[in-house]
């Protein structure tokens, strides 16, 4: 019987390379992702146009979705701002919030999610039993 060998990552050398445009490329074996935390200021600078528009919204906590007098939605409807740009802005804010969450907050969210999954599974098992 032939066993298919699983590939294993054996590189232990890490390196940083300068790219021609001045950026840095990090080669870090075994690292799946890099999360940036506390990047709110960078997001604000990159999306300064959205931030300025948001300051003109009627509500301070406007989510720029269905709220009345939302300056961001008005500009999107006029065609001066793309919906994709707003979606990218929202995505980065959510990612930043996730990355800045404390371990306790992450555990609490995971416990709540697990509880919800268990409840749904229990309900499904109950429904199947009644159908038998």
Can you describe this structure?
A hairpin with a 5-residue loop joins strand 1 and strand 2. A two-stranded antiparallel ribbon has the order 1-2. It is mainly alpha-helical. The two termini are about 45 Å apart. Helix content is about 50%, strand content about 5%.
Could you write a compact summary of the structure shown?
This protein is mainly α and 132 residues long.
Helix-strand makeup class: mainly alpha
Helix-strand pattern: EEHHHHH
Shape: flat
Across the major sheet, the strand order is: 1-2
What's the Cα radius of gyration?
A: 23 Å
Q: N-to-C terminal Cα separation, in Å?
A: 43 Å
Helix segment tally:
5
- In helices, the fraction of residues equals 40-55%
Number of DSSP strands?
A: 2
Secondary structure: elements and pairs:
Blueprint (H helix, E strand, L loop, with lengths): L14 E4 L5 E4 L12 H7 L1 H7 L16 H8 L4 H18 L2 H29 L1
């Amino acid at each position: 019987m032939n066993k298919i060998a699983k590939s294993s990552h054996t590189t232990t050398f890490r390196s940083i390379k300068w790219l021609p445009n001045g950026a840095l490329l990090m080669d870090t074996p075994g690292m799946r992702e890099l999360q940036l935390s506390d990047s709110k200021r960078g997001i604000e600078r990159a999306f300064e146009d959205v931030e300025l528009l948001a300051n003109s919204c009627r509500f301070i906590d406007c989510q720029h979705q269905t709220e009345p007098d939302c300056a961001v939605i008005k500009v999107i409807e006029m065609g001066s701002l793309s919906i994709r740009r707003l979606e990218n802005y929202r995505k980065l804010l959510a990612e930043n919030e996730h990355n800045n969450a404390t371990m306790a907050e992450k555990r609490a969210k995971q416990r709540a999610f697990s509880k919800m999954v268990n409840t749904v599974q229990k309900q499904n098992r109950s429904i199947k039993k009644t159908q038998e």
